[in-house]
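Today's session is about reading a structure prediction critically. Students often jump straight to the picture, but the first step is always the sequence itself: look for stretches that repeat, for charged clusters, for runs of hydrophobic residues. Only then move on to the predicted structure, which in these notes is written as discrete structure tokens rather than atom positions. Here is the chain we will use throughout the hour.
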Amino acid sequence: MIDRAGILALVPHQGAMCLWDEVLDWDADSIRLRAHNHRDPAHPLRGDDGRLRAVHLCEYGAQAMAVHGGLRARAAGGVAKPGLLVALRAVELLVARIDDLPGALECEARVLIDSDAGWQYAFRVSHAGMLLAEGRAAVLPQSAT
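Below is the predicted structure for this chain, in token form.
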């Protein structure tokens, strides 16, 4: 298991914007993560009404990709290339909000495409065994300037 400090060392998302607390399992093709921060009243994605909408699960999915990319790069002796989220596809949100869920969020993300031109993953976010959201996300490499 990799804790939050280990995740922070892998991704550009820092402080409260780093949404994952721990990596439960990973291999070259997939990753499983857990987070508890959706109940935090100071969550950076909460709306003015204090609610955290299910659409924000797409950011959890995208950050799962970033963590996985960081782990894969580190295993290969390097660091992950910076990327830019460019597309979400086939997203299904099965709840309206997530700030009222009592337990941890879990995400499974799986590599669909890995090339020099970009990456595509499928992600599924659940709570207590219930699927909350799923979809695909695409990231293009960003040149370091």
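Discussion point for the tutorial: The domain at 4-141 is CATH 3.10.129.10 (Thiol Ester Dehydrase; Chain A).
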